[in-house]
Target: Chitinase
Amino acid sequence: MTGPVRRPVLRTLLTGVVTAVASAGLALTGAGTAHAATPLPAHVFAPYFEAWNGDSLSGLASQSGNKYLTMAFIQAATKGSCTPYWNGDSGMPISSANFGSDISALRASGGDVIPSFGGYTADNTGTEIADSCTDVNSIAAAYEKVITTYDISRIDLDTEDNSLTNSAGIDRRNKAVKAVEDWAAANGRSIQFSYTLPTTTTGLAASGLKVLQNAVSNNARIDVVNLMTFDYYDGATHNMATDTQTAAQGLHDQLKTLYPAKTDAQLWGSIGVTEMPGIDDYGAAETFTTANATTVYNWAVSKGINTLSFWALQRDNGGCPGTGGSDTCSGTTQSTWQFSHTFEPFTSGGTTPPPPTNDFSLSLTPSSASVAAGSSSSASVKTAVTAGSAQSVALAVSGAPAGVTASVSPGSVTAGGSATLSVSTTAAAASGTYTLTVTGTEGSAVHSATYSLTVTGGTTTCTAAQWSSSAVYVGGNTVSWKGHTWKAKWWTTGEEPGTTGEWGVWQDLGAC
Model:
């Protein structure tokens, strides 16, 4: 998850908090003073809050109904430093002057915060505290400063990109975690550590698993392993709810090997998942819908997982239909705070939310086609009543690239009726496989289905400008390099396409 420079995730992801003084209503304690922070609930929903953009933490918490938030991110200002700052900004030290009154207000309403160290930008620039600082005691002191300044009970470690392959940083980080846990025990404190890691649809990749294996070897207790269940970048079309469940099951099985003495309930109780509402950084093929949210919520309650989250609170609105990877909106059709409202009951132990009074299903037949550039294809859009009575369903299609036109006719049907998806291509359409998303909306019920369109015999020349090592690129920019077209997932400069790996900034769009 990203930090202050770009959205990203990446996530591509995660939290940070600030200090408090007595006047702000928070306990300000010394590193050696015994003080027990209030533990988090055993099951907690804590979406990420982007702490770098000036939004009010307590204000958005109140508006959205969220009581717990994960704050992104804490990192060093420069590579080699051991001093933590919010967002790596030397003007935002870990002190009560930053976010203190906001955190106090959140606690007064019965909530709390989880500060997060790392994030994609820190992991990519060497400013993640354990990558930057080579002294284990100084890293531990940075964690302890956040704990005592804000009196928090959990620290999140968002570890991705280069931090996943920095073996020295991994070892230092886990040694520091162990040191802090020993310090906390000696001083009557309760502190948890969570790792937030990228995942495949079947569990952690080898690099993420090595982070946990190193923690075990250092006797560092990791209370929660939180999967970023988005930005898979594997070229497949995803049912994001299903993939969350298979990813978590894979993690469960990996944790069973690492911690053979734990019961099944204990294993599930140490797992977290973080979704990305709407269209993630990859694009429409990875869209987490409002219906997916209900499915994941019910599954999370049934499994008894520890943490439910999403990236990020500021995205929880439908202000930019069809847009992927935005910092400020989901790109899908939704009401404001709809994802928050779906997940919020999870904190109190979770109860299955009542189904909508009226609901429907939507499907496409066929769901894919291969056409020569200049040709057309079509599919039947079928709806059915799944709850209540038949209501009018508004239909729309998104995701068509340049040279491709897609439409649904009629634009609305009564649930149970059908429509036609018509797709036409021009000779100038570029060869490749594209995902079109048909969305149906009926009141608060929103469902979608995807159509995989493969164009053959189209343009293959490299039309994008050549990559430049000195240029600055933002998410969505395309370049040509070594016979391929590449798309930037987020802000970058100086990173050569083809060298950043599957979790890196450049997406290979194929030969040109």
Summary: Residues 4-34, 352-356 have pLDDT under 50 and may be disordered. The first strand starts at residue 44 and ends at 45.
